[in-house]
Design brief:
175 residues; Four Helix Bundle (Hemerythrin (Met), subunit A); 5 helices; 51% helix; globular
Length: 175
């Protein structure tokens, strides 16, 4: 049987975020966006995930999953937590951060790496305050709060891309 991207059980309802603490709100919105990206991929086979469907762009759903694993690692683990970990797929220095070089044969592995990276990122920031800061690779002092907001923005942008890619793959639309 051919592997397909697993279905996603929503764990974060948006209505639940209206009156929670700032930290829970940021974590909840990030969780919601992570789940949205996975939901856009759910039920697709590896070849569908690796196919560029919005010409002339070479962007793929699998590339977005890989990219977000790379971006999460860069900001939460390498930058904020200072962990000495390499890249998940490719590095920031190549300017592509996992978007290219996708191979349908690696889809199941790439999804597992994405999920593992999310867990590692959540663990890296657990117990840290939103006001804690670090110095970025460009020498700018940033807070953990800023990283959460950046990641929510990054997912929101790429989930918009995922909407188009999924619709062009099999016509599925919606959240």
């Amino acid at each position: 049987m051919t592997w397909t991207a697993p279905s996603v059980e929503r764990t974060q309802g948006l209505g639940e975020l209206g009156t929670v603490t700032e930290r829970r709100m940021l974590e909840g919105w990030l969780r919601r966006h992570r789940e949205t990206l996975l939901a856009k991929c759910a039920g697709l086979e590896p070849a569908q995930l690796a196919r560029a469907t919005v010409e002339p762009s070479s962007l793929t759903l699998l590339g977005l999953v890989r990219h977000m694993a790379e971006v999460e690692r860069w900001w939460f683990r390498r930058s904020f937590a200072g962990e000495a970990v390499g890249e998940v797929f490719t590095g920031p220095s190549d300017g592509d951060e996992g978007l290219s070089g996708v191979d349908a044969a690696d889809a199941e592995r790439d999804f597992a790496r994405f999920r593992a990276e999310i867990e590692a990122c959540d663990a890296a920031v657990a117990g840290h305050e939103l006001d804690e800061t670090f110095v970025s690779s460009s020498g700018v002092r940033l807070s953990l709060r800023w990283v959460y907001l950046l990641m929510i923005q990054e997912y929101a942008r790429h989930n918009g891309h995922a909407d188009f890619l999924r619709e062009r793959t099999d016509g599925l639309t919606g959240d």
